[in-house]
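quick q for whoever's on today - can somebody do inverse folding on this one?? i tried earlier but teh output was garbage lol. tokens:
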């Protein structure tokens, strides 16, 4: 049924804008219609009372004057939704469309795992206390001082200094401004091997954890989130010694450097760990070597069993206390020992000193002997995966048995004399 005009229209005028209010009867009910034009299009707003129609006319004029014409083009339901959204953003300068976009991105990222309220409450709980500010350089100085006070090994202190000093130089900022993308770019720009980058990443992880513990970073902060995990794998041939080569090294060795050679070859300790070893750490009676946490590369205490042949080599050299190896420059002595295995007169070429070959040989022969990779990994202070990729060379069980059968007397007088002549 068509609407019928009940009486003459009323004009509402303000700010040069006219809205006509027409009394109208529709289906036997009287209405008041606010009639105006926006962008050349006619708009009708129906109200049940004259007062409501005047309010609608006034609101329309306000919107036109303030430039919110688009609101007047919405349906009644959408218009109310729009207005409620604007009302909710009172005091917030962010535009409505930016708020909607940020909300959509956040909900998508959460993927139903938590509500926005839960995320906010968790963040506020972890950031309830204002964090003290400290520069990266000052934080590095503090962590290095802690390492010294904690009695960390010289090797560990040197590693921390090398990595963190460089990081502080590149990150001339405060700790709380650090973000994963900055750390990622820093590591990517290092002109180092993948393994060295892995070591840098590990040290930075230790650095960040200490800063969380000291309250300079919020609990739960993860500055390595999304940062590439570099491989620790060593590429290239795994070097080992044969039993005959080991006998030649032993025969040519000075008693002061001999413990390093036999402990490296028959217990698999790292070169640096042996140089930090003291005679009190070796229990010849019970048959084990204790590598204390502060003397281990991994900062983890471990126990390594003494093979019978190793015990036989160490018994005549053992002391009640003091360093097992007293040389300051052990590498120089090892190179000298390798050089003394040759004899020019008899055209016997000296052995090449192979870096880490004693440890590689021990691990390979020990696994060939026991068949137990996890056990050997624990003794060596590595993960089974690293043992397989970095240290393990396939050796026959018979060759492993020969390796651990090397005893002091098996070096032979002929080789001993050869070594003495070469000296």
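ok took a stab at it. sequence:
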């Amino acid at each position: 049924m068509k609407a019928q005009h009940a009486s003459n229209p009323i004009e509402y005028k303000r700010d040069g804008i006219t809205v006509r209010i027409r009394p109208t009867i529709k289906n036997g009910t009287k209405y008041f219609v606010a009639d105006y034009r926006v962008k050349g299009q006619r708009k009708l707003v129906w109200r049940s009372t004259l007062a409501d129609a005047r309010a609608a006319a006034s609101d329309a004029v306000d919107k036109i004057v303030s430039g919110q014409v688009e609101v007047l083009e919405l349906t009644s339901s959408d218009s109310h939704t729009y207005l409620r959204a604007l009302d909710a953003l009172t005091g917030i300068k962010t535009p409505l469309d930016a708020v909607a976009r940020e909300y959509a991105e956040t909900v998508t990222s959460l993927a139903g795992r938590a509500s926005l309220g839960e995320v906010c409450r968790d963040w506020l709980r972890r950031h309830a206390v204002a964090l003290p500010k400290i520069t990266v350089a000052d934080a590095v100085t503090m962590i290095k001082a802690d390492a010294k006070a904690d009695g960390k090994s010289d090797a560990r202190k040197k590693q921390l200094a090398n990595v963190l000093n460089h990081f502080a130089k590149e990150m001339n900022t405060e700790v709380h401004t650090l973000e994963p993308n900055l750390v990622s770019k820093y590591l990517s720009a290092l002109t180092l091997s993948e393994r060295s980058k892995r070591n840098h990443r590990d040290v930075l992880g230790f650095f960040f954890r200490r800063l969380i513990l000291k309250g300079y970073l919020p609990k739960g902060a993860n500055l390595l989130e999304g940062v590439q995990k570099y491989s620790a794998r060593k590429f290239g041939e795994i070097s080992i010694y044969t039993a005959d080569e080991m006998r030649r090294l032993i025969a040519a060795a000075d008693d002061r450097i001999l413990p390093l050679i036999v402990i490296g070859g028959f217990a698999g300790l790292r070169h640096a760990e042996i140089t930090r070893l003291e005679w009190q750490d070796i229990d010849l009676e019970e048959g084990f070597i204790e590598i204390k946490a502060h003397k281990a590369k991994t900062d983890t205490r471990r126990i390594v069993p003494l093979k019978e042949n190793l015990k036989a080599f160490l018994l005549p050299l053992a002391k009640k206390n003091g360093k097992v190896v007293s040389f300051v420059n052990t590498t120089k002595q090892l190179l000298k020992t390798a050089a003394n295995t040759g004899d020019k007169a008899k055209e016997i070429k000296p052995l090449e000193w192979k870096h880490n070959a004693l440890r590689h040989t021990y691990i390979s022969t020990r696994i060939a002997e026991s068949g137990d990779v996890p056990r050997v990994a624990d003794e060596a202070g590595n993960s089974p995966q690293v043992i397989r990729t970095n240290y393990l060379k396939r050796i026959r069980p018979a060759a492993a048995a020969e390796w651990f059968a090397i005893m002091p007397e098996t070096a032979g007088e002929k080789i001993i004399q050869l070594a003495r002549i070469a000296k």
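fwiw The two ends are 123 Å apart (CA to CA). also Strands lie at 4-5, 10-14, 17-26, 29-38, 41-47, 282-283, 288-291, 302-305. so keep that in mind when u check it
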